[in-house]
Write a structure and sequence with these properties.
Blueprint (H helix, E strand, L loop, with lengths): L5 H8 L3 H10 L6 E2 L5 E2 L2 H15 L4 H4 L4 H10 L3 H18 L2 H15 L1 H22 L4 H21 L9 E7 L6 H12 L3 E9 L1 H11 L3 E5 L9 H11 L5 E4 L1 H5 L8 E4 L2 H9 L2
Parallel strand pairs: 3-4, 3-5, 5-6, 6-7
Antiparallel strand pairs: 1-2
Helix pairs in contact: 3-5, 3-6, 6-7, 6-8, 7-8, 8-9, 8-10, 9-10
């Protein structure tokens, strides 16, 4: 069993913590536990419940009506949602629930079914990347068991690598990107996703992977002269100082633009060096890739 905080539920469901507390007071579908110090925590069952209810509520069902539904009725209503966005969110919620239950067979089946129906790029863009954006907050806060993280990561990594290896682009844009993660960052799924997007659009990719010392990044940059550097930061070690990292890489590699996306870039509000560009959403990432 996982113990989720109310902020975890907010991040995963999109429902504000204040609203969740009101629902607890008025309705019967959420029953959080309490620690010895009287702090709320939520189990896998409550996580599934809030994901299902938030989805129905978003697409027109009143909370007072949902509260009177049985579990099977809620499931039937979710399956009946016809909007493309609702179907996408339902699949992402299924992945989160299967991860919480450590049901990796069902987790992989959900991905395989979507890949079969829509192809690898749509699966990466509409399912895997939004899922990683949601679940990344649990990796940052350590509210997910490392075993779950490893199991999920390996399955998604396999799908991404298959996508990278199978993609063929007949248009070359005459650009080279060096993809890396700095020391302290080991979550490479977002970076692999960028590898796929860039390669599929004709960009040559030099992929040096996760947890790379700055000296190695500098060495490869001087040797191969890429047009830009790219890092996707999901989470980093506690001692990692993002501001110092930006300063150091700007001093050592000042002539090569640095593009950074991911959770860390979204949270950073200070001014960046002139050659550093933060992409705070998938939309901004896609805009950047489109104009290369």
């Amino acid at each position: 069993m996982n113990a989720f905080t109310i902020k975890d539920l907010e991040s995963l469901s999109g429902i504000k913590a204040h609203t969740i507390r009101i629902w607890e007071q008025r309705y019967s579908f959420l029953n959080p536990q309490r620690t010895e110090t009287n702090i709320r925590y939520y189990t896998n069952d409550e996580l599934k419940t809030i994901l299902n209810i938030s989805l129905l509520n978003k697409y027109g069902f009143k909370i007072s009506h949902i509260d009177k539904m049985s579990s099977s009725e809620i499931k039937d209503k979710i399956l009946s949602l016809s909007q493309a966005e609702a179907n996408q969110e339902r699949i992402i919620n299924d992945l989160i629930q299967h991860m919480a239950d450590m049901d990796m067979d069902s987790f992989e089946t959900v991905l395989d079914n979507y890949i079969s129906a829509r192809g690898i790029e749509k699966t990466i863009t509409y399912i895997i990347f939004p899922y990683l954006e949601k679940i990344g907050i649990l990796w940052v806060t350590n509210h997910i068991n490392p075993a779950q993280e490893h199991l999920v990561t390996n399955i998604i990594r396999q799908k991404l690598i298959v996508g990278i290896e199978s993609t063929i682009c007949h248009i070359k844009v005459n650009k080279t990107a060096l993809l890396f993660l700095p020391e302290g960052e080991h979550h490479e799924l977002g970076l692999l996703f960028m590898y796929y997007l860039l390669k599929s659009r004709g960009v040559k990719v030099l992929y040096i992977g996760a947890n790379v010392p700055l000296a190695d990044i500098e060495y490869v940059t001087k040797l191969k002269k890429p047009d830009f550097l790219y890092a996707h930061l999901t989470s980093v070690a506690q001692h990692f100082n993002f501001e110092k990292f930006l300063t150091k890489i700007n001093l050592r590699i000042p002539a090569t633009p640095l593009i950074i996306s991911g959770q860390v870039s979204q949270a950073y509000k200070k001014k960046t060096p002139s050659n550093t560009h933060l992409k705070r959403s998938l939309h901004e990432v896609m805009e950047y890739i489109t104009v290369l």
